[in-house]
Specification:
By secondary structure, the protein is an all-alpha fold. The protein has 6 helices and no strands. Helix content is 58%, strand content 0%. It starts with 27 loop residues before the first helix and ends with a helix.
Length: 142
């Protein structure tokens, strides 16, 4: 039978990487080679998770917009719908809308304005703030 020999950590005065029968530990040089790879993977994973979180947040805002706003404002926010035209709904890309502060936009979404109904009963504050962010993004797309 072959005798089992493996590398070990510094142990009892033995040199790193010395072969000691019956011991099975990773040598220091292997750890030095693996550590940077593990750190890089951890960094890539955290960046990927942050990107996925941001993308999913954008998706949630867009979904909320489509379910709560698009019927009147249109999917692109232009107000170019039958309801939007009949009620003279402003284009969300317009300077008239975009010059309002985030607080003013959140107020309109929450409490309604003119023919627009209030949404504070059906949307939570995070959803309303998400819609404000979505309206800001719409101005960048046109």
């Amino acid at each position: 039978m072959a005798k089992k020999e493996t590398f070990v950590w510094l142990n009892d005065g033995a040199a790193n990487g010395a072969v000691i029968p019956g011991k099975t530990r990773m040598p220091l040089f292997a750890l030095v080679l693996i550590a940077p790879v593990l750190v890089a993977l951890a960094m890539l994973t955290s960046t990927t998770i942050a990107t996925v979180d941001a993308a999913s947040a954008d998706g949630v805002e867009e979904t909320t917009f489509k379910s709560s706003c698009a019927m009147c404002h249109g999917a692109d926010g232009s107000g170019d719908t039958a309801v939007g035209k009949s009620m003279h709904i402003p284009d969300l890309h317009s300077a008239q809308v975009q010059k309002q502060s985030d607080a003013q936009l959140a107020e309109v979404i929450s409490n309604g304005k003119n023919a627009m109904p209030p949404f504070k009963g059906s949307l939570n504050p995070d959803q309303i703030n998400g819609l404000v962010a979505h309206v800001r993004q719409l101005s960048e797309k046109k």
